[in-house]
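Form 12-C: Joint structure prediction
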Amino acid sequence: MRSLCVEPFQNFSVVDTGARRTLTYCSPWKTNHKHEAVLFPPPSRPIRKTLCICLSSSSKLPVMMEEEKKTFDANETALLVKELNESFRTGKTKSYEWRVSQLKSIEKMVVEREKDIYEALYKDLSKPEFEAFVSEIAMVKSSCKEALKELKHWMKPEKAKTSMETYPSSAEIVSEPLGAVLVISTWNYPFALSVKPVIGAITAGNATVLKPSEIAPATSSLLSKLFEEYLDRSAVRVVEGDVPQTTALLEQKWDKNIFTQVLNFNTPNIVHLSLHTRYNCGRSPRVGRIIMTAAAKHLTPVVLELGGKCPAVIDSDVDLQVTARRIIGGKWQVNNGQACISVDYIITTKDFAPKLIDALRKGIEECFGTDPMESKDISRIVSSNHFSRLQSLMDEYKVYNKIVVGGQRNQKELKIAPTIFLDVPGDSQLMQEEIFGPLLPIITVENVKDSIDLINSKPKPLAAYLFTNNDKLKNYFVQSVSSGGMAINDTVLHVTVSSLPFGGVGESGMGSYHGKFSFDAFSHKKAVLYRSFSGDSSVRYPPYTPEKQKLIKAVMNGGIFNIILALMGWSRD
Amino acid sequence: MSTEEENQTVFDVAAASMLTKELRDVFASGKTRSYEWRISQLKSMIKMCEEHEEDIADALHQDLSKPKLESIVYEITMLKNSCALAIKELKRWMMPEKAKTSLLTFPSSAEIVSEPLGAVLIISAWNYPFLLSLDPLVGAISAGNTMVLKPSELSPATSTLLAKLLPEYLDVSSIKVVEGAVSETSALLEQKWDKIFYTGNGRVGRIVMAAAAKHLTPVVLELGGKSPVVVDSGIDLQACISPDYIITTKDYADKLVDSLKKELETFYGENPLESKDISRIVSSNHFSRLTKLLDDDKVSGKIVYGGERDEANLKIAPTILLDVPRDSLIMKEEIFGPLLPILIVSKIEDSWDVINSGTKPLAAYLFTNNKKLKEQFVMSVSAGGVTINDIAMHLAIHTLPFGGVGESGTGSYHGIFSFDAFSHKKAVLYRSFMGDAALRYPPYTLGKIRLMKALMTSNLWTILRALLGLS
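Section 2 - Result
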């Protein structure tokens, strides 16, 4: 089936129908819409077993084809998994020393190869060095640093209180590694979003496979090279590749014929950080669903880090300049809007909108100059596929005349200027799907409180932002808007606070990580109760006499009188 | 009876979808979020337990011939304790948790806010049909959700009782009971839920998780698995109730068997099939599954105690099998019945490998006086929970999370862990409009890059140098 993946097919997809798995391809001359229709004839019906991954990126695909000649297939994956499980079995990844040595190596890798990393990121995304440093290098470094500092403390069993019923006893919660875990990452922060989960997996003492995104090929191959060089090969691995590779990886815990494999792969924790694939198939089947379905076959717990349309609500009493700057920071300064927590759309009041637009226009000019297309301080669009997706969002007849700022584009360089739309209709594509690019629609409402209903009528986003000086509104917003995380009077910055869990809810994902939460995401919390042989009351055992019933009821209900009775129970008879 | 029939004919996908819509509307109204609503529901549940203790014990007896003490201790009282704990702690659980912020975001404050998920589905099991239905409900209520409970159809009396009592005592607009079997469950699973909490076996667990994947619904799966008991030599033999299998050393095995025999005789008398203190097997299906395990060629000669069965009354006597081979049927599947196989190892440390070569169990037990063995066991055996020198008591401790790992499940509950299982932990960062540095924004000059690097590595000296433009 994999032989289908030859050059002429620019888009192809895996259609999984449970036992029957086939690779089909999506004809490049069809638009995304038609393509979706081809795959899902009755769009009204819930998608059941037919799921699809569509990956593509015209110019990048030939490169991938060469890579594919290495054919990393199911057999090879089986071997890899077996090897990792064997390493895990030896217990070496469990030791504090091993974890620390790996973390130190990652630190060293980042320091020594900083330049290479910038280069790869520039190749993949034209990412400015400042941005690359702040959101990729520094993030990884500080994660390592924190993990190294706190690891002993994190690994320590946590004492738990015990109750009267089990007296005398002591209890604790022991964090133990899960086994072999799989991390699948994405392309928008291809370095940080790959390495940060791996740090979590290592701190928790697991053996890890990382599958970086093929849409950021330079970073992917750099990661593969660097991991080999710096980390313990027997327990930390990179598998590069495309859909077949991902499928092969998932198959690993999926094929019932290799039963020992299934057993050994006990609890791989799949962290999924993918956003990119969804666009090619419209809004329907996210890779997250495929991953979770595959994981279900082996009862593998998953962490899914997805995206969503992150709103920013702007009240009219704000400091306009600061607000505008922080929106710019949370939109065009984070990978040109190609970030899962970047501001997707703005909601503000009718009266305030013109003022806000002026401030944004001024701010954009200050940051990116009079011609933002020339600015070196802004990332490009990742691929021509994404470029054309964004273009079709801009050109939709419902919105094309609503542009108030920007609108310039350069297909050759894959650049789109910061673009603001005013008053786009709710049923436009722009407001229906996650934008993931430099387009920013502004929705106006009569009363700022109306924005909350608007947000809640959509799937839960990964982040929600509010700018206001009104404390009551703040409280109301925090109480009534459901989202993965929130920042009040700022954007994006909550991600940098490692004492906060980072993760989605509902459509934006499940599970969380960062700081100690990463350690927890890759650990099992084992409840341990220690008892001694004294204090075993015969009350607990049959035959059950009426006296025993009375006594045990009393003990379980608690209270001082009952304790006296209980003590009688403990005086062994 | 008639209502049940009605239910069965009416409850299909359309009905299920109506039901979730109704629950979502109620959730959107915000009423389940209030502290008062949560407390009132928890209080009603305690009242229900108190006023209907007899009915509950009767239903459990009908379904499983469960002895009254067992019902009261393991089901009713434990549930009441859960409610009481939640009532006592709820204010504290609901309070946002302050989080530290860093220099980078100064000035700011941060907190983690627990918010309800929305509409949740709870599918429970038949072995503790009362507790395993309502204990998760306590978590879902404390966290402020709306919910549907689907009790197990294998314990019909309890299921019917729950369907009758819950609407009587609890807020019927936000807490629903749907009775039924496979088709009702499938109809429910088609819907989009914000969490699915399933107690049962791994086969159905997989189906539940795959159904949840369609809607990206997170799941808690409370499954089973073969829970081993490792018995070191030289311990005081008294307390063994219902582990899945025992591992011990060769020289100690006989002593252990003798002691177990003696204990079982005092528990259940000479003729255990006549004893009132032993639950019957839940269904004839399960009965025949258990007899098949007993009749396996590899183990049929290994019975050293018990073995009697009474098909008409669905009773099997407590049965001990000594030195069963690891590839026998009884060692391959979860037994879930009164059969107790004993495995023999040459030294006690070998049992770690025996356990780790199977799938991860929900619980693992060790009986020993040896401190080093205890430590080794806790560090090297992976299981949902571990109890040293006792059986199953770890689930009575609400400060410990109860849940499996690997094949024995995912997610956990009890006490605050129940509240957490049904909550989303929302990260919130509060900032003021002050402290906005031009440093953060383009155009990126070399100086800005330097200063930012210094700031983010929090090296004071470099910050100073960068500020002075020295580096």
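Section 3 - Comments
Residues 1-8, 237-241 of chain B have pLDDT under 50 and may be disordered. Chain B touches chain A through 109 residues (CB under 8 Å).
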